[in-house]
Each structure stands twice: as structure tokens, then as C-alpha cells.
């Protein structure tokens, strides 16, 4: 048996199970099981594997992980991590897996907001990927991450501690602004709230529909519920000249821009993600 044969075996099984990324996933799981990097895999893939306990264990691990992936468990849940903005985040079934789309939001804030003393609030933080990467890469001194889910906050806290060190960001539990305390006021509000219309969720890929938290996806009837609540309440928690950055679904730009304008925000603008879809809406207060 060679690594090449093991890989092919996995690709076939994943392909049959409908995994759209069968080759890529099988290779990633093989590297994980055998503790190899790509270069060593490529060098050794045609060698006949030794008959040792370690090889036997690695092969079993690999086949077990392939079995999970055949059940359409997200590869990030099997590996336990997802990279975001060059940082590695722990993930589990309590948090949305960080998406590349959301890097557009973080990059925009880093580009527009150079003052490290600005106070940052991330609502619906989930894994903490937005709050933690803003603290790590933007150096903002005062960052608060809030979520309704206790389990999500635990995950965000663990990610913050590992990436930034203990106590570097503030964690608050509660439903949107209810997580905050009287007197709190921020300069930058970021959020990737749940925005999928309830009816659309059942048509999503099984990885998302069956394994990611509904709480992080479901934006109610038209998917806009959280933007309505955020837009109408934000001003009470923002300092003069504060800016708001919201991740949106590709067809929600018009509606979310209108909500921000109605709530008195100016400089409202839509930013596209790398594939060219509307992905972020930003706006700011004049005073
Ligand atoms: N972008 C995610 C998806 O497509 C949804 C994220 C969200 O609802 N905030 O599954």
C-alpha cells in the first residue's frame, strides 16, 4: 500500500458521497493522519508504506476521517480548525466556520481605521474571528466581542486566549446590544449576523444545513431581521463619527443600505468580495 493508493481510495469514497472537493479534502485528511506536509507527501507518495504500528494507526485515522467526511461533516469540524486572516481559529458545531467572504469585512476595517485607540465592538462574534483578527492585525486596544450563545463565546474566548493572550479582548453574552452595559460606547461596530432567510436554509449544502449552528445562519423571514435591529439601535451605543461594517448576503445590499440611511448613517457604501459579489455595507455617523 502507498500513500497514493490511500489517497485514491479516499477520493473515490468522497466523490461517491457527493463531496464537491473530494480530491482536496482526501489529501488534507491524509496529510493530517500521517503528519505530513505537502512536500513530504509528494516525495513519498509512491513508496510502499512500512508495516509498522504507526502506519497502521495513521491509516485507520485517515479512513475514520474519510468516513466522517462521507457523512458530509465539514472538514473544519473533523480537523477542528479553520484559518482566517492568516490566523488559525478553533471551530466546532456551536460557531459558524469562518469564511473567506468575511475577510473582506476585516480588511476594509483595517484599511479605513488606522487609529488603534478606537473602541471596537463585534456583534454575533461566533468563533471570534472578526474581533480577534482586528485585535491581532489592527492592534486595536479595546475590543469587545458579543454573542447570544454561551458556547460560541467560550469558543471565541479560547481563540482569543490562544491567539492574543488571556484578557486581551472583552467577551459579553447577550442578544445583540443587550450584551452591553450602560455607558458602553464604540467607534467601530462590526458584525456578520445571521442573514439567510429561513426558507432558504433547507436548500443549503448538507455541511452547512446539518452541521453549522442555525442560530448563526437564520436571519428570519427575509433574512434582514438582524440588520433592522442593528440599524435601529446602533446609534445609542456609538460615539460621534463612529462607523458600522456589516457583512451581507449577495442580494441584500440595497435593503441594508436603506436601513442604515434611514437610521441616519452617511457615507453608506457597498464593498464586493473577491468573487465580485456584494459582501459588506459600511456607513458612518457624522456626529
Ligand atoms: N456566509 C454564510 C453562508 O453562506 C452565512 C453567514 C451568515 O448568515 N452570517 O453560509
Q: How do the helices and strands line up, and which of them pair or pack?
A:
Elements: H1 3-16, H2 22-34, H3 38-44, H4 53-70, H5 75-79, E1 81-84, E2 87-90, H6 101-112, E3 119-123, H7 129-138, E4 142-147, H8 150-164, E5 170-173, E6 186-191, H9 198-201, H10 206-211, H11 214-217, H12 225-233, E7 238-247, H13 253-262, E8 266-272, E9 278-284
Parallel strand pairs: 3-4, 3-6, 4-5, 6-7
Antiparallel strand pairs: 1-2, 7-9, 8-9
Bound molecules: glutamine.
What's this entry about, in short?
The chain is of the alpha/beta class and 287 residues long. It has 13 helices and 9 strands. Bound molecules: glutamine (GLN).
Descriptive tags:
287 residues, alpha/beta, 7-stranded mixed β-sheet, 13 helices, 9 strands, 18% strand, elongated, binds glutamine
Write a structural description.
Helix content is 44%, strand content 18%. The chain is an alpha/beta fold. The protein has a 7-stranded mixed β-sheet with strand order 5-4-3-6-7-9-8, with helices on both faces. A two-stranded antiparallel sheet has the order 1-2. It is elongated, with a radius of gyration of 21 Å. The mean pLDDT is 97. Glutamine (GLN) is lined by residues 96, 99, 101, 192-196, 208, 217. The site of glutamine has 10 residues, from loops.
Amino acid at each position: 500500500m502507498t500513500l497514493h493508493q490511500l489517497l485514491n481510495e479516499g477520493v473515490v469514497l468522497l466523490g461517491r458521497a457527493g463531496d464537491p472537493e473530494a480530491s482536496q479534502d482526501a489529501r488534507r485528511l491524509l496529510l493530517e493522519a500521517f503528519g505530513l506536509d505537502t512536500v513530504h507527501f509528494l516525495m513519498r507518495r509512491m513508496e510502499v508504506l512500512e508495516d509498522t504500528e504507526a502506519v497502521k494507526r495513521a491509516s485507520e485515522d485517515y479512513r475514520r476521517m474519510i468516513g466522517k467526511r462521507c457523512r458530509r461533516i465539514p472538514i473544519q469540524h473533523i480537523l477542528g480548525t479553520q484559518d482566517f486572516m492568516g490566523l488559525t481559529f478553533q471551530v466546532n458545531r456551536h460557531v459558524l466556520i469562518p469564511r473567506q467572504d468575511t475577510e473582506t469585512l476585516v480588511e476594509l476595517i483595517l484599511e479605513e481605521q488606522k487609529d488603534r485607540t478606537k473602541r471596537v465592538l463585534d456583534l454575533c462574534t461566533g468563533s471570534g474571528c472578526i474581533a480577534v483578527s482586528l485585535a491581532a492585525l489592527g492592534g486595536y486596544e479595546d475590543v469587545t466581542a458579543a454573542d447570544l450563545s454561551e458556547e460560541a463565546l467560550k469558543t471565541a474566548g479560547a481563540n482569543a486566549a490562544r491567539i492574543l493572550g488571556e484578557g486581551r479582548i472583552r467577551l459579553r453574552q447577550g442578544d445583540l446590544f443587550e450584551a452591553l452595559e450602560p455607558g458602553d460606547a464604540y467607534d467601530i461596530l462590526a458584525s456578520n449576523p445571521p442573514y439567510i432567510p429561513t426558507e432558504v436554509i433547507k436548500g443549503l449544502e448538507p455541511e452547512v444545513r446539518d452541521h453549522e449552528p442555525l442560530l448563526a445562519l437564520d436571519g428570519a423571514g427575509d433574512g434582514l431581521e438582524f440588520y433592522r435591529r442593528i440599524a435601529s439601535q446602533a446609534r445609542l451605543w456609538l460615539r460621534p463619527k463612529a462607523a458600522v461594517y456589516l457583512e451581507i448576503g449577495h442580494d441584500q445590499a440595497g435593503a441594508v443600505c436603506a436601513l442604515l440611511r434611514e437610521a441616519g448613517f452617511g457615507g453608506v457604501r457597498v464593498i464586493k468580495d473577491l468573487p465580485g459579489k456584494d459582501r459588506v455595507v459600511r456607513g458612518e455617523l457624522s456626529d
